[in-house]
Amino acid sequence: MSSFPPASLAWSVWGLGALLYLIGFYQRVAPAVITDRLMAEFAIGGAALGNLSAFYFYSYVAMQIPTGVIADRWGPRRLLTMGAGIAALGMAVFAFAPSLFWANLGRLLIGGSVAVAFVSMLKLASHWFSPQQYALASGMALLTGVVGGVVAGVPLGMLVEVFDWRPVMAVSAALTAVLCVLTWLRVRDDPAERGYASHFQGAHGGHPSISVLHGLAQVMSYRNIWVLTAVPIGFSGAVLTFAGLWGVPFLKQVHGLDGRSAAAITSTLLVAWALGGPLLGSWSERMGMRKPLYLISSGVAILGWSVFIFLPLPLWALVVVLIPTGFASGNIIIGFAWAKESVPLRLVGTASGFCNMGPLIGGMLWQPAVGWMLDRRWNGVIEAGARLYDARAYRAAFALMFAAVVVAGIVLLFARESHCRQMHD
Q: Burial level of 213, CB count in 10 A (0-12/13-18/19+)?
């Protein structure tokens, strides 16, 4: 083991883990372009549709904390292989679902299985890449996820128009099954298993058993952790709710767009969100403070959503407003770094898993809530088996999302500044 692994091998190993993360993000927002088909297929309204989409988040959120512990004990190779296999099964169940129950079960399996991808990617990066490349790998992880979200926009919409949603989801299941096999054959937890030197700077194996509940209790004793978990429920939750489910039907039904154009606009919001994350995180690092920029970006996001939801702007102006709104909502990256600095180093992993539940809880809560309000304001119009909602119904429904954003901004005021310095025991 005299040399480190070649870059091509390292990136190919990491890339297979990244593909599962891409698939997970793709499945997270895929329902947005097939809302009308799902409504007609299962004879459901907005609340049931929101719940169907949110079943992904239910299991994803539940897996956040245990995933880190399982990755340490099983290793990323086994975890990613199992995740891809169960994800393929979930997609198949969803694709061939004869009823809403089976569709919900499929989404539940998908969410819980792809939840292992992000932690596994970071763990692979710590072994296969040098410390100087670890930040690049982390940034590429976010980019990979957004690529999955973009694929679930216009490309998925085009495929669904030609082949319908069930065959497309069945093919997605087959491709994920292929990824499962490739992961088992190609991925290794450490370069030493391939005869190379490892970049990992800690001890291999021999870690004492850690009480997960004890570590979680310690993490929950820090006020910043609660604040920095709650804030993304509003800001990132709004992005996932609009881009992940209700943006496409809103743009089609209220502004008369075709499916491709509507999906392209929601993808623009996702791209702006992804770009805002690393840039805002880097700017806060240069400032040497987290809170000022987090508050400023939160204000921009609140203003952007208020203009988008409550002002009667033309379509082009709404699109222009969505870009800075999405960019500012990328302040979630500031929150992740801030949360890490708010606890001792020994609790960083647990704190990161806990805080990562915030944006996912946002999607889990607001997607069904928006659907529930749409049903309450529905005027009875149905087209091709799917409910149609007017502008007033969407305004009332998105007002719930806006209220969550405002509350998140208020909650942020109670966070304590870390000055970009890591807390120690």
A: exposed
DSSP 382: E
How many CB atoms sit inside 10 A of residue 314's CB? 9
- 93 three-class SS: helix
pLDDT given at position 5: 82
Residue 332 is part of a domain; what is its CATH number?
1.20.1250.20
Q: How many helices (H) and strands (E) does the chain have?
A: 19, 2
For helices 315-329 and 259-287, what crossing angle results, to 10°? 40
**In contact, 227 and 129? CB cutoff 8 Å:** no
CB within 8 Å of 66: residues ≥ 6 apart: 212
Span 325-335, average pLDDT = 92
Q: pLDDT for 359-398, tens place per residue?
A: 889 999 999 999 999 999 999 999 888 899 999 999 999 9
Query: Which residues form the domain of 48?
Result: 1-193
* Residues 390 and 423 placed together within one structural domain of the fold: yes
Model confidence band, residue 175 (pLDDT cutoffs 50, 70, 90): very high
At residue 71 the predicted structure's pLDDT band, cuts being 50, 70 and 90, is confident
Query: What residues have CB less than 8 Å from 87, skipping those under 6 apart?
Result: 20, 23, 24, 27, 109, 110, 113, 114, 176
Angle at 277 between CA 271 and CA 283, to 5 degrees: 130
Q: Backbone phi, then psi, for 188, in 5-degree steps?
A: -130, 145
Residue with tokens 């989801």: 169
- Of 353, 333, 358, 331, nearest to 343 by C-alpha is 353
**Contact assessment for residue 165 and residue 33, using Cβ atoms and an 8 Å cutoff:** no
Contact 262, 322 (CB under 8 A): no
pTM of the model: 0.85
Classified as helix, coil or strand, 386 is strand
228 in the same domain as 342: yes
